[in-house]
């Protein structure tokens, strides 16, 4: 590079082509140099999983509930989380109502917090930026503005503008920070950052448990240069209302992505043609809706997708948790808030189109719900490929999905089993619509771990000491809401020692299938069976919600992003 005076680019200008020179003595022949940074950008857009987006309620609902703010869902606020953990079911129903909630986006101009004492910056202060990029000032990256900038923004404020504060940051910060830092600082003065050699370049993908097919080759330095040279990768997060349908979320997210691309091109002075999507869990369903030709219609604006722990065709855990609550174990704030008992979960997800879309779809297959009883024929459902009619909408058999008395404790005139059945019909339609929708440049990682078992099969076991003439005729007399039922029926009894009791105990069996404690490998493997994906990582060692805290998941994601970026044509 020629030596001389390096001229500063105006930090208040996003065009990157304005500077100021200096008057120097005639004897000073040193050139004055303006270094123009790259103008091309490929935004990385992250879509979180269910419960991974913060929500706020409408003004009307806030006033009706007498809340001092409009927070509907923000588990990182421990006071709010504790209040919801202890709330009665009717409060949960009102506070987590898909028709009265929206994404809690960052807007410092209007401060939509529902609390005059709370600013948007205070509401979104969960988003922290713990790294410092060593690149020029005129970039679209997360760096503090210099003192001369007007207005001057901190890197945290810029992160909030990127949506980092509208998602469950504690679960996803490692991913967001890794992508922003590593993709934009891979090379310095032409030299490769040692971090890449230590962690990705030349590393066999088998280290991150890559599936043997399709075959993946290690990244070379040339691969990395091809992917990142002359381009920035700003990382955005786009939350969505996970209570609403993924179809609607896909439409809204597609509009946000289109707006983002337009801003980079027309307002911020960059060249932006496409984005890359990275997803977690339910976010994968939203991403598939984004690119669907009849929903988001945005495949041409998406260069590729990296799916993380996606319930590709649903998860048996959705049935289990609506009947028996979330599992106890290591303290997961989001799961605790949503509920450890069936009624706590059903009152939310049973009224939420998005939650019902996580149930096993037709593509999940037959005979995944079982009732076992000694000396009686097994009940294995669905039999005819329709879990919506054969399981979810059952109203007389005790092993159906819905306990109707749990659905509407707030006595909402619009809620109830009829509306939930409509939502199930819509879920069926959505499942069928996206069944084969995958981006041609797709990569995936997910848990296939025998130590983190999930419910591929859900089994109700009748006590072996019981005599039951007709299993389907049993009626619930007692429900612990955590998987223990006490049943009665004419002629049914249980021998306890020398006595006969009229109560028949029934127990939901523990998870027994490989997965990540939520999504069974059977569902995630639909991506492998599709034959579309460029790379699949079947991994072990992590739990579903915390998958992006695992190095294998993080590094396989970064590998996948580089491979997708290599396909970009300018």
Descriptive notes:
The chain is an alpha/beta fold and 570 residues long. The chain has 19 helices and 27 strands.
Given helix and strand content, the structural type is alpha/beta
Strand order of the largest sheet: 11-4-13-14-17-27
Strand elements, count: 27
What percentage of amino acids are in beta strands? 15-25%
The whole-number mean of residue pLDDT values reads 93
Low-confidence stretches: 10-16
Identify the notable features of this structure and list them briefly.
single chain; 570 residues; alpha/beta; six-stranded parallel β-sheet; six-stranded mixed β-sheet; 19 helices; 27 strands; globular
Summarize the structure.
By secondary structure, the protein is of the alpha/beta class. It is 30% helix and 17% strand. Helix 11 crosses helix 13.
What is the strand and helix layout of this fold?
Layout: E1 5-6, E2 32-33, E3 40-41, E4 44-47, E5 55-57, H1 59-65, E6 71-73, H2 78-85, H3 89-95, E7 101-103, H4 120-123, H5 155-161, H6 169-183, E8 187-188, E9 191-192, H7 194-199, H8 221-228, E10 231-232, E11 235-237, H9 246-267, E12 271-272, E13 275-280, H10 282-291, E14 302-308, H11 316-324, H12 333-338, H13 342-349, H14 353-356, E15 369-372, E16 379-381, H15 387-392, H16 417-434, E17 442-447, E18 449-454, E19 458-462, E20 466-467, E21 475-479, E22 484-488, E23 493-496, E24 499-501, E25 504-508, E26 513-515, H17 521-524, H18 526-530, E27 535-539, H19 551-566
């Amino acid at each position: 590079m020629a030596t001389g005076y390096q001229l500063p680019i105006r930090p208040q200008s996003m065009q990157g082509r304005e500077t100021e020179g200096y008057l120097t003595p005639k004897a000073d022949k040193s050139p004055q140099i303006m270094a123009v940074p790259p103008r091309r950008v490929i935004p990385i857009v992250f879509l979180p999983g269910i419960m991974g987006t913060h929500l706020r309620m409408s003004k009307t609902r806030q006033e009706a509930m007498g809340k001092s703010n409009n927070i509907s869902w923000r588990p990182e606020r421990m006071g709010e989380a504790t209040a919801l953990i202890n709330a009665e079911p009717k409060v949960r129903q009102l506070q987590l109502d898909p028709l009265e909630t929206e994404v809690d986006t960052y807007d410092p101009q209007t401060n939509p917090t529902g609390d005059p004492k709370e600013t948007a910056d205070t509401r979104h202060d969960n988003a922290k930026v713990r790294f410092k990029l060593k690149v020029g000032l005129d970039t679209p990256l997360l760096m503090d503005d210099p003192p001369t900038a007007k207005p001057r923004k901190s890197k945290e404020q810029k992160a909030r503008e990127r949506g980092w504060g509208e998602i469950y940051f504690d679960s996803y910060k490692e991913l967001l920070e890794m992508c922003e830092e590593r993709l934009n600082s891979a090379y310095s003065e032409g030299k490769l950052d040692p971090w890449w050699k230590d962690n990705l370049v030349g590393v066999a993908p088998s280290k991150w448990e890559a599936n043997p097919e399709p075959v993946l080759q290690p990244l070379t330095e040339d691969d990395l240069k091809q992917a990142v040279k002359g381009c920035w990768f700003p990382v955005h997060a786009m939350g969505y209302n996970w209570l609403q349908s993924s179809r609607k979320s896909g439409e809204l997210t597609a509009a946000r992505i289109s707006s983002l691309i337009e801003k980079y091109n027309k307002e911020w002075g960059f060249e932006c043609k496409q984005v890359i999507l990275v997803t977690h869990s339910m976010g994968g369903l939203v991403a598939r809706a984004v690119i669907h030709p009849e929903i988001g219609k945005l495949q041409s604006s998406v260069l590729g997708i990296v799916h993380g722990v996606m319930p590709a065709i649903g998860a048996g855990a959705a049935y289990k948790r609506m009947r028996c609550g979330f599992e106890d174990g290591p303290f997961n704030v989001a799961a605790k808030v949503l509920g450890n008992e069936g009624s706590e979960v059903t009152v939310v997800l049973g009224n939420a189109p998005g939650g019902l879309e996580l149930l096993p779809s037709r593509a999940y297959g037959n005979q995944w719900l079982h009732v076992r009883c000694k000396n009686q024929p097994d009940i294995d459902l669905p039999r005819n490929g329709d879990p919506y009619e054969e399981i979810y909408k059952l109203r007389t058999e005790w092993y159906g999905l819905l306990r109707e008395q749990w659905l509407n404790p707030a006595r909402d005139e619009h809620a109830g089993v009829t509306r939930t059945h409509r939502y199930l019909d819509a879920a069926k339609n959505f499942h069928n619509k996206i069944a084969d929708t995958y981006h041609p440049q797709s990569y995936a990682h997910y848990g296939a771990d025998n130590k983190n078992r999930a419910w591929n099969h859900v089994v109700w076991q009748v006590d072996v000491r019981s005599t039951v003439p007709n299993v389907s005729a049993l009626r619930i007399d007692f429900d612990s809401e955590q998987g223990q039922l006490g049943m009665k029926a004419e002629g049914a009894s249980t021998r306890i020692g020398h006595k006969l009791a009229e109560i028949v105990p029934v127990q939901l069996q523990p998870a027994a299938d490989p997965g990540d404690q939520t999504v069974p490998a059977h569902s995630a493997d639909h991506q492998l069976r599709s034959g579309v994906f460029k790379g699949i990582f079947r991994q072990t060692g992590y739990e579903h919600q915390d998958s992006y805290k695992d190095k294998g998941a993080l590094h396989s994601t970064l590998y996948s992003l580089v491979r997708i970026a290599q396909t970009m044509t300018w």
